[in-house]
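Quick question, first post here. What does this chain look like in 3D?
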Amino acid sequence: MSVCIGYVIGIILALFKVLPFFYAFILTIPLIIDGTGQLFNKWLSTNYRRLVTGILGGIGIVFMFLYAALLFWNLTMYLYKKGEYIGSLIFN
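> Answer (accepted):
Ran it through. Tokens below.
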């Protein structure tokens, strides 16, 4: 649930300012560490920790998705201007 809250906050923030990719990646690190620690039974996360890491991770994921979409768009436009169909790269 907290990741969804982070998504909403991230979308609202993206309307006003785009975080650099490095900061977006840094925001997801606490979520990765907490989830990995729980997966391997190193610790049991509290609800407060899950709330904080989920919100931070959700914000970071929104901006990383935004960068991935922009990268794909730029690649598509580059190939379009060169006269190549992007499907030919995938299906050949």
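The helical segments are 2-16, 21-39, 47-82, 86-91.
Residues 37 and 43 are 6 Å apart (CA to CA).
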